[in-house]
Write a structure and sequence with these properties.
Helices cover 88% and strands 0% of the residues. The protein is built from one helix and no strands. It has one helix at 3-37. It is rod-shaped and about 60 Å long.
């Protein structure tokens, strides 16, 4: 395989993983804020 293709695939998959982690973090933070905002 070509090294450039390998680097491109690795970089794209890495960026996708980072984006998924960011989305999960935002979702969990919103849930925590919503739960914390509700007075018990």
């Amino acid at each position: 395989m070509n090294i450039t293709i390998l680097i491109a695939v690795g970089g794209s998959s890495f960026l996708c993983g980072v984006a998924l982690m960011y989305l999960v973090m935002m979702r969990t933070m919103k849930k925590r804020l919503a739960e914390g905002a509700v007075p018990i």
